[in-house]
TrEMBL record:
Function summary: Part of the Tol-Pal system, which plays a role in outer membrane invagination during cell division and is important for maintaining outer membrane integrity.
Membrane protein topology class: Lipid-anchor
SUBUNIT field: The Tol-Pal system is composed of five core proteins: the inner membrane proteins TolA, TolQ and TolR, the periplasmic protein TolB and the outer membrane protein Pal. They form a network linking the inner and outer membranes and the peptidoglycan layer.
Protein's recorded name: Peptidoglycan-associated lipoprotein
Upper taxonomic lineage: Bacteria, Pseudomonadati, Pseudomonadota, Betaproteobacteria, Burkholderiales
Length: 177
């Protein structure tokens, strides 16, 4: 029975690797640009000189303020430091911002819920902070811009011992300096 599955798997793999497109017959379209002459150079057409247009960065500062003041918390499952897929876009936004402004620095603060001993929670909080730091690093953020620290269970976001409160406390916060 295993041989049949192995043969089927190899056949499927070989079929998936095959291509029906002949790369020698793909049409090539020449899309070279045309030059634009300055006004009055040959008496025809018009062009806008580069000196007439200045670039405007519309909303860049407000967008940056939104990133810094926006969502900055990554929540984790119980006893885990694996970043959930739903927080990947949040990390990507902060990575783009940090890559664009190399002078900005952040501290990633890892936190845990109240369960577990002090040393265990400090270690888990550090792993959560390092997980976010590592994700930012994979997206191109320079290591010197990011600091990972752990507060364990010392700074809960929400007081309480129910699951909802503990879920809010299992987090890593991105704090801009």
């Amino acid at each position: 029975m295993k041989r049949i599955f192995l043969i089927l798997a190899v056949t499927a793999l070989m079929a998936g690797c095959g291509s029906t497109t002949n790369l020698d017959e793909v049409p090539v379209v020449d899309k070279t640009g045309t030059s634009v002459l300055p006004p009055g150079a040959n008496g025809s057409g018009s062009a806008v000189g580069k000196g007439d247009v200045t670039s405007v960065d519309v909303g860049a500062s407000s967008q940056n303020a939104a990133i810094v003041g926006g969502p900055r918390v990554v929540y984790f499952d119980y006893d885990s430091y694996v970043i959930k897929p739903e927080f990947q876009s949040l990390i990507e936004v902060h990575a783009r911002y940090l890559k664009a402004d190399k002078s900005r620095k952040v501290a990633i603060e890892g936190h845990t819920d109240e369960r577990g001993g002090r040393e265990y929670n400090l270690a888990l909080g550090q792993k959560r902070a390092e997980a976010v730091r590592s994700a930012l690093g994979l997206l191109g953020v320079v290591d010197s811009q990011v600091e990972a620290v752990s507060f364990g269970k010392e700074k809960p976001a929400v007081q309480g011992s129910d699951e909802a409160a503990m879920a809010k406390n299992r987090r890593a916060e991105i704090r801009y300096k």
